[in-house]
Design goal:
Shape: elongated
Largest sheet: none
Order of helices and strands: HHHHHHHH
Number of strands: 0
Length: 173
């Protein structure tokens, strides 16, 4: 069985924190064997495990990987040979993606009735949607990088965002 990226990140976070599997298992009220199975990819990371890591170790990368593995879509930690995760490079990439998305959005003509949209209009709409997905990925990578390198709380930023949405009446409790 191939170990998932989330399982690998969990193990790396535990080791970086200087904890043994036994110590981590006691912190999370799980057996050491269950922690080992999660780290080895034999068991999926549970939401409570991911929450523990993001709260205790401020590990946004593990949160992103776990969400990606559960849903099969979303932002994943970039780790390919072409990636540069230096904070200034991540910032520049986010700005580039934002500019491209704004340009694509400005070129889209939304029809009153989507069922009457022409194929060329659908292509422009799809291009705009793809550009915005690139923005989401670059933006979340930027935020995760800032949390990682400056010690900002990933959970607190998202909790503040949710409270702001609630206060503006965009979501209900």
């Amino acid at each position: 069985m191939k170990k998932s990226k989330a399982a690998r990140l969990m193990k790396e976070s535990r080791i970086q924190s200087g904890k043994t599997q036994q110590q981590l298992s006691m912190d999370m009220f799980q057996s050491r064997e269950y922690v080992a199975k999660q780290e080895n990819g034999e068991r999926k990371l549970t939401p409570s495990t991911v929450q523990h890591f993001t709260e205790t170790y401020n590990d946004p990368w593990l949160a992103l990987e776990a969400a990606f593995e559960y849903t099969g879509w979303g932002v994943t930690r970039l780790d390919g040979p072409a990636v540069d995760l230096h904070r200034s490079s991540v910032r520049e990439k986010a700005l580039e993606e934002l500019r491209e998305a704004i340009e694509a959005m400005e070129n889209v003509k939304l029809t009153k009735n989507p069922s009457f949209a022409q194929s060329f209009e659908i292509q422009d709409i799809e291009r705009s949607a793809r550009e915005h997905i690139d923005v989401i990925g670059a933006s979340i990578t930027y935020v995760a990088t800032l949390c990682d390198q400056y010690g900002l709380s990933w959970n607190q930023l998202w909790e503040d965002h949710y409270r702001k949405l609630q206060s503006r009446g965009y979501v209900t409790t």
